[in-house]
Amino acid sequence: MFRLVWYRxxxxxxxxxxSSMCLKLMFSRPVAFVQIWKSRFSSHSLIGNKNxxxxxxxxxxxxxxxxxxxxxxxxxxxxxxxxxxxxTWNMSVSEKLQDVGNEQFLEEEGKALLxxxxxxxxxxxxxxxxxxxxxxxxxxxxxxxxxxxxxTPVILSRLKSIKVDRIVGQSPGISLKDILQFRKQFYKxxxxxxxxxxxxxxxxxxxxxxxxAVKRYQNSELETFISTRSSVSERSMEKDSCKYFSDxxxxxxxxxxxxxxxxxxLPKFTAGEWQSLIESTYIERAQVILERCIHPADIPxxxxxxxxxxxxxxxxxxxxxxxxxxxxxxxxxxxxxxxxTASFKDFALQMMPHIFAYCIPRSCNYLVLVATSGDTGSxxxxxxxxxxxxxxxxxxxxxxxPEDGVSPIQKxxxxxxxxxxxxxxxxxxxxxxxQTAIKQIFTNSDYTGFLTVEYGTALAAAxxxxxxRLLPQVVYHASAYLDLVxxxxxxxxxxxxxxxxxxxxxxxxxxxxxxMMGIPIRKCICASNENNVLTDFIRTGVYDxxxxxxxxxxxxAVDVLKSSNLERYLHLIANEDGQLVTQLYNQLESQGxxxxxxxxxxKLQQDLVAGWCSEEDCLAAIHSVYSTTxxxxxxxxxxxxxxxxxxxxxxxxxxxxxxxxxxxxxPAILRALRIAEINQNPLSQLHLLSSYSxxxxxxxxxxxxxxxxxxxxxxxxxxxxxxxxxxxEILIQNHFM
Length: 737
Fold this sequence. Notes:
By secondary structure, the chain is α/β, with parallel strands linked by helices. Helices cover about 45% and strands about 15% of the residues. A six-stranded mixed β-sheet has the order 13-14-24-19-20-23, with helices on both faces. It has a five-stranded parallel β-sheet with strand order 6-7-5-8-10, sandwiched between helices. A five-stranded parallel β-sheet has the order 18-15-16-17-25. InterPro entries: P-loop_NTPase, Ser/Thr_deHydtase_PyrdxlP-BS, Shikimate/glucono_kinase, Shikimate_kinase/TSH1, Thr_synth_N, Thr_synth_N_sf, Thr_synthase-like, TrpB-like_PALP_sf.
C-alpha cells in the first residue's frame, strides 16, 4: 500500500507553448521520491485530524516540501494537481487548461476542491487554488494553511531557469511579475501561518521551518510573558496563571510593579529571512515581523493584517510610511513624523488601540490612562478616537500632561484631539510626576478593585510601558536598515549605528530589540538634552536622581529623569534576574539612586554609548543644517544630530531617528533660524515657517488641527494623587454610566 511520488510536471506555459513536461522546480538538495504508507495515515500527534495545507506561488516548492513534511510526520501526502485535478478530470492539467481557457479553468479547479476531503494529511495546493474563495473556505475548515512566502524576484529567477514565461490566469500584455504580485492578495487572505523562504534555501530547511511554524501555531502556551521583577521561583509557582500577549496588552503594568517582557525573548530572523524583505513595502515588513512576535491565538494573521492596514493605510502622508533620507556624509534621517499627529508615537498609537480593542473582553469597560511629556498625548487621543463607534462606547482614554511642560502647539494638539471618548488633563507638575502617579494608581489594588466593582470599569495603560506600544517601533528600525540595503548604500550584513533622542527609553529599546532579532546594528547612541541622567548612567553605571530637578527644554519629549523602559533592558542584560531588578528599583525609589555591577555595565556598554546636548547647541544645529541643506530638524532630532556628530566614528552609516516634525516646536525653530519677530499665535507661527518653503513642508495635520481650534478647553488639576483619582472617577461616571 504505497506509491512512489516523482517530480510532477508544472502546469506552466513555457516559451515553446503549453507543456506538461516542465519539471517541478528543484531545490538545491532535491528529494527523488517519498514513500507514503497509506495504511498508517491515522492521526499524528502534531496535526491530529487536521491537514497541513501548503500554499504559495508557482515555483515556491509546495510539492517538494509537502513530500518531505509528510515523510517526517509519516502521514499521507496529497498533491492537488496530480491526486485531485487530474484524477477528477481524467486528463492532464495542461490539457484541461487548453480545453477550457484561463477563467473557466479557475472555476473548474475550485469545483474540484469543493468535492475534496481529507484528514491528517499534508496537502499541496496549486498556485491558483487560493483565487477560488469557496474552494479555499472548504479547505480551511479542516486545515492549517501554511503560506510559503518566496520573494517575487526569487520566483521569477526559478521560473526563468526552467524557461517558464506564463502561468495560469496571465492575460496577454500582463507580465509574469505583475500576475505574481496580483496573486499575493489571495495568498494573504487565506493563510494561518507564513514561512519565509528566501534565496536558495534547501527544501529540507523549508520543511523544518513549516514543522516549527505548525508547532508554534498549535502551542500558544509557549509564548508567555513575565514581569521584569519576578524571580525564577515565583514563575514556577505561577505556571497556572500565565500571561499571554492579550493579557499584557490589557493589563499594561505587571501586578508587582514591573513591566511585562516575553519569557522566551523575541524571535530571531535569519539573514535570508531579512533579505527576503528588502523589496517589501513597509506594511508588508510590519506584517511579517509582527506575526512572529504575536501568536495567532492572540491575533490571527488575517486580523493583524487588517489592523496594520488600518493603522498605516491612509493615516500617513508619505507612502513609504517611515522613509530614510540622506542628510549629509554618512548620516541618514529616519523620518518618523508622517503620521496624523506628527511624531514617532503615531507608529504605535495608530495600531495599539485596534490591538487593544480586539484583545480585551467584551464584558467590561476600559479606561486607558496615559502620561505624556508632549507627543504621546495627542497620538493616544487621535488613535483611540479612530476606533469603531461600538469600541468607543466601551473604551475611553484620559491623558495627563504637565500643564506648563509642553510646547504651545503640543498643548493645542492635545486639546484639539479631544473627542467623545478622549480627554486631556493638565497637571501642575512635570512629566515624572504624571508617570509616577499612573504607576501608583495601577498598583493600588483597592482603588482599581473599587472601579471594577462599582462601575464595571478596568484601567489600562497606553504609555510605552505597554508591550503593544513597543512592538510597532521595532518594525521601523528594522525597516530603516532594509531601506539602506535596498537603496544600495550598504550590502546586507554591513553594520550601522543608530542615534536616538531618548527620554523614556522606549524608542532606543525598540532598536536594541531589532538588533536582537538580527538587524546588524553596531551601537545605539543615546542622545539626551540637559536632563542627562541617562548619559551619566550609560557612562558610569550609576543612576542617580539625588539633587536633580527636571529642566524644561526645547526638546520636551526628552525631559525625563525616570526612564521607565530602562527596566526592560536591565532585565535583559541581567539574564532575567527579576530579584536584581527589584532590588535596583526599590533602591531607586527609597534612596534615589542605584549602581550597576561591573559586569552588567560592560554588557550595557557593548550596546550603548551616550552623550547630551545643550540648548544652545541644539538651536545651532538646526540653523547649521538649514543653512547648508534647506532641511529643518525638529529640536529632538537636533539633539540627536549634535550627539551623533560627537560620538559616531564615521566608519559606518548612522541613522538618526527624526522623532517629530519641526512644526510642533515652531517658536524654538523660529528662534534657531534667527527670525526676530515671533507671533505668539501657533497658527501664525506655522504660516511664517511655511513662507520659507522648507524641507519637509509644514505638517498638514497640525495645520488642520490648529485651523479647527475654537474655544476648546481642558481640565487642569493640582499635582495631587487624590485629585487625579477623583477626575478619573468623574470621567468614568460621565462616559460609561
